[in-house]
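Recap from last week: sequence in, structure out.
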Amino acid sequence: MGGTVERLVAAVRDGDADEVRASLEAGADPDTVDGTDGLPVLCRAVAAYDEPVVEALLEAGADPLRPLPDGTTPLLRAVDGGSHHMVDALATHRAPLPAPVRQELLARARHWAETDVEAELRRVTGLTGPVERVRVEDDEVGWWCEQVTLGGVTVRDEHRAVLTSMEARYGIRTHFDDLAARALAHPDRGHVVWSEVVFTLGRRVDEETWQWSRDLLNHPDRSHRLLGADLLLSLIFGDIVTGRQPFWNRGRELVPWAEEEQDPEVLAVVLHAMTHDNAPEIEAVGLSHLTHPDPAVRALIPETLEQSEDGRPLVRPESLTAVLTLARDPDPFVREAVCHWLAHHRAGEPEVGDALAALTHDELQSIRIGAVSGLAWRDDPRCVEAEHRIGPLDKALPFDERLLDVSRYQRRQEASESL
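Predicted structure tokens:
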């Protein structure tokens, strides 16, 4: 058994989740203590922000509430470390947590959320030297945070997200202004805290939250307006848990702000929120930005076109001309968005097929794939020859279902000819 323990400790130190699982299956205790620091191996994995290893240990029965010599627990140490995902994994492993544990967690998270991370690190370590700051990105979700290290102690600046998610989990309805302040402390749509606040408020789907979010669009500071736009977009998407979408068709209320907004990032988010409505005034706003200097704005224009009750675009000649102009946009991000729209436009205008055929020569393979797929769906025989222009695929990428559309077109043709 001693060899199994040493094997587990070494695997945790190396961050080898597969070896950790193998050691546990061989009989190692998931609460094994690392002899170098006298702490359970779970604490080492938590401190290393090693989520796969933590998951393996928890699945095998490691105790996130195990009392430690300093009076903490692995879960409390996770809160100190500031990783939103890490705290969530440990806090939801044993459900429900006892009320005193929940209160202690909330108090701990609130302390960090209300304290400057660097200042708290200096207090904890007693050191005055420079801190090391590293940007850490989540490749799967796309979020990022800042990781701060001083004297061998490392924390991440996600404590406001930790507090926000725990409050929501335990039924605490934090005031809108308090949550907005947390997001604005990290004014970037990609930051974990901003994203968690938007997710939390977006699930409320009530009129009060809608009005408060819309009021932020009147703020002179662009970060406040960006938050307001992001919240409105989230509210329009609705509560993904319950499926409620009471604001799905209220994008038309945002027209005055879309007409006046000067910040390109804010404008893009407002336009995105409006695209889920089908009011004719939304199309007019979209087309008014046809020559906007920011590609993120231009890329949204096709989605602003008015739709019929069955969701199909009511494409007027001048609107189609605008979209076809964007199909030749110098920015690939815009061309890809337009290609997606054209590929899903099922009306029979020949110029749509011509635009898709032109896009099969695009420099980006993803656009060529979308254009060939669009031609195939239109039963345009040019898709067969254009398929050869797609070129070799990156085998590391997941398979793209659109690559089968030409063969589906050919089968439809064969079936039609056999009748």
